[in-house]
User: What shape does this take?
Amino acid sequence: MHPINSFRRLRPSKRSHSQTLFQLSLVFFVLIGLAACASRQMTVRAVTNVIDDGITAFERDNDLDLLEKAFPPNIKLLEILLASDPHNRKLLVLLSRSYASYAFIFFEGRIESAQLKSASNAADRALANGLIETATGYYRKGTEYAIRAIEIRYPDCRRKLANIATAGPFIQTLGKEDLPALFWYGFNRGAEINLNWTSISSMAGAHRVEKAMRRAIELDDAYFYGGAHLVLFTYYAARSPLMGGNPALALEHYRSLKQMHGDAFLLTDLYYARYYLYHRQDREEFMDVLNRLLSEPDNVEKFRLFNQVAKDRARIYLAATDRLFID
Assistant: This one.
């Protein structure tokens, strides 16, 4: 959802939080290689705690060029650590979150950029389809890691989640300790479905996303910046009523996010414009909301990455206004 050229706006001068985190990760990796086998699992868990505490550094850095380079080696590092401690729930959740973030930040924008070009051609469609396939693979990996994290406490969770009759009741049994894995399970599944509307197998899992995010809100509606509200807003606003859409419910989640963050979290208004206003064909407010979003100052550190993503995607949507709206 942001154009390829948007990734080229560099701030190459000072070392970023993510670069520092990456270098620290490599140092710890070397230490693990030197550690005795008996203490390797303890070392892995110590490193995992450090990475878990530092992962927010990625979200406070809006240097997308650097982040795009940093994500893959960090993901692979986490997978190497997991090989030494395969039942580490925190590592599994970190991997689920990392795959979700990587696909969301660096693939979805490019997909929409190709899809929404006014002169979309076969090359653009082929590019979009290839990116969808890649991003779908990442979201599926993220889902799998989340299920593995849940599975540690609930060995039969995979069977229960796969059955439409047992998925909802099982999700309701999950508690606050399960919230991170539950949230990233729902996020990854929801993102995969959004990219594959024509896939019957993907759409069959939509109800699980709805139930997972409703349960996440019950457990802690502010988790990950209120992300469950954003997922459910998109779920209800992007679909027709025949497909489970519900504009009234979408607005409830939108209002919850506005109450939580005001105007500071720009993804809220981005998706309000892209899905709710688009489906109402309210061109004037669509443009007003996105232009206002672009004028917001970059002064909320914890939202810096996601606000940069929102601004990049707002430019894509504004450029595609004539394609999105019928006069």
